[in-house]
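Troubleshooting: if your tokenizer reports a length mismatch, compare your output against this known-good record of 347 residues.
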Amino acid sequence: MESDVDLLLGGFRLRLVAESRKLLEHVTSVMVPPCETTAHLPGADWTVMAEEADPPTPDDADAVFSDRPVLAFPYGGPRIAVVTAGDGCLRVMGAYRPDAATAVIEADTAGRTTRVVLPAGDEASVRWADWLVRVFFASRMLASGWRMLHASAVAVNGSAVLFLAGQGGGKSTLAHRACTELGAAFLADDLVLLGPDRTVVGWPTRVSLPEELVTGPAGTAPGRRRIVFSPADHRALLNGERSSPVPLGAVVTVVPTADGKAPTVERVDSLRAEESAALDIPAQRLHTGDLLGLTGGPRPAGRGVSVTRELLGGVPAARLRIGDLRTLPHAPVWEALSDLLSPLGAP
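Known-good structure output:
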């Protein structure tokens, strides 16, 4: 039986129609929040229709990818081959992962509709449905003045706390610890969208956590093994706690040091260098941009519009210096950050 819902975010409305309740629940488990749901109202900006069918034969799929130009995302991500294009209609075939079956995606610009036919029984391919929804919202929000940052985030009493660091620098660890130790609500593990009014939207991604945060320190090698969760599995790990968009309240940037000392905190007035690094994520913007027009959205614009003011300027901010990142899962960070977080109501 067909199911449907309207999703709202950033002033944009998407109608999602799914062949089954299971498909609909998959997408909403990823996208709500940050999206809100509502009954149908006139004026949806776009419609995504998802259904399942028997996949093409392997020979047919191989032929599509062998004799056409292919858009391939890095790190084993999706690959897409254009089958036909013209008169406002686009038909592509795509594999969400290298070992996944092939899905068919058809975009109709005049009808403001994208139809995705997922290969039945292929678990990885189901991700095409939520990917199209993410592309719809992100492409439009980024074109209308929102910015994407490489950061994790939690909500503390209705205010967002951003954690900035390089790859493997402790963002995910701090966000998870804030949820389990401070009672914060989870926003994002790796990416956030920051609005012109400094509203923070946590962007759905997979979540990678140190093993000892999940299973406990016994028998683990600190800072070495990590466990990766889907958005839905991570939500279950936190008993469903996840925050809707909230205003920005504070920023913490993690700075590793070589002295091996306990965590220390330095309050700062400007994080321009850290902000610039967090904004420099071209692969992520391309992954969430509508490069082929599959949801009728604007195309990515290279490095994006230049920022003439500090996005994070004037927000309470601190640098957390820690001597050994491997100790971050159990280091006394909240005591060091109490002056920054207490005004937000953190315990």
